[in-house]
């Protein structure tokens, strides 16, 4: 992203913490004028120590710091990926090709799996994952008509409380893991119009009663995140005790990353549950949210 966009990102991260420029400068041990220059996009060179201080002050996890410092490089998404040439072909500039390949892979995986974008919108899910979450049909019917209708935040923190109803114990750990992934994947997009559009809905307590609580808890927790997987261990109301990791495989594109999430069982009980769901649901995947275009109905 260019300097103006990076400045908008820093401002969005600062505002999310409820700080003024003066407070960020204090916590980062930098001059307030420097913070102002960054946010206005007029500071062209970032010293390594400055980025280090900012990342510390903004309470970023290890994975978030990686994205934050990459954003400070000044390169946009189309410059970060490898460029095509006569000697080397790449699909990173062809969203339809990338999407077909990733959805096909999602359908072939014999475990619960779904494909999300940097905003947490579910692009596609295989039949096993749909059976695992048991999403009410009415949620899918209205999804295209409301902000964040296909977003993982709606499943985990929306008023229907779909995930909460199934997780009998250890809910806080489940919710924090889910929110942490949402925050990390979206870090570089916090100042984008579509992210602001989503957050306006997510911070409506009547529609998303649990969102703001866990959004703030993730930024205040001392637990770091340095690997692209989350550990889940809880009692499911129908499926019984489950123990698995949600592992993210990243597809890098010039339109933002896509993340293929797979639930990998860690014990025989969970393996048996996933195997039965696969047998009952059958192969295949269902397409949901649009990508890379992000309409705002």
What would your notes on this structure say?
The protein has 297 residues and is an alpha+beta fold. The chain folds into two domains: 3-75, lambda repressor-like DNA-binding domains (434 Repressor (Amino-terminal Domain)); 95-287, Beta-Lactamase. The protein is 48% helix and 14% strand. It contains 15 helices and six strands. The chain has helices spanning 3-16, 21-28, 32-40, 48-57, 62-71, 77-80, 95-108, 127-133, 137-142, 152-157, 162-166, 171-186, 193-202, 211-220, 268-281; strands spanning 113-117, 122-126, 229-236, 240-251, 258-265, 285-287. A six-stranded antiparallel beta sheet has the order 3-4-5-1-2-6, with helices on both faces. Strand 3 (229-236) and strand 4 (240-251) form a beta hairpin. Helix 8 packs across helix 15 (268-281). The longest helix is centred in the middle third of the chain and has 16 residues, at 171-186. It is globular and about 60 Å long. It starts with a helix and ends in a 10-residue tail after the last strand. The model has no long low-confidence stretch (mean pLDDT 91).
